[in-house]
Amino acid sequence: MKLLRWSLLLLIVCLPGQTFAQVNHEPVRRDTLHETVSLDGVIEAVQQSTVSAQTSGTVLRLPFDVDDSVEAGELIVQLEDSEQQARLNQARGRLEEAESNFENARRQFARIEEVHDEGFVSQQDFDQARNNLSTARARLESARAAVEEAEKELEYTRVVAPYSGILTDRHVEVGESVRPGQPLMSGLSLEQLRVVVELPQKYASRVRDTRQARITFDDGRVLESGEMTFYPYADPETHTFRLRLALNEPESSLFPGMLVKVGVPASERSALWIPASSLIQRSELRAVYVVEDDTKPRLRQIRTGVRDNGRIEVLAGLSEGEQVVTNPAGLVEAGRQIEAENPDLSDRESIQ
Question: Which of 13, 83, 140, 350 is the most exposed place for a label (fewest CB within 10 A)?
Answer without folding.
Answer: 350
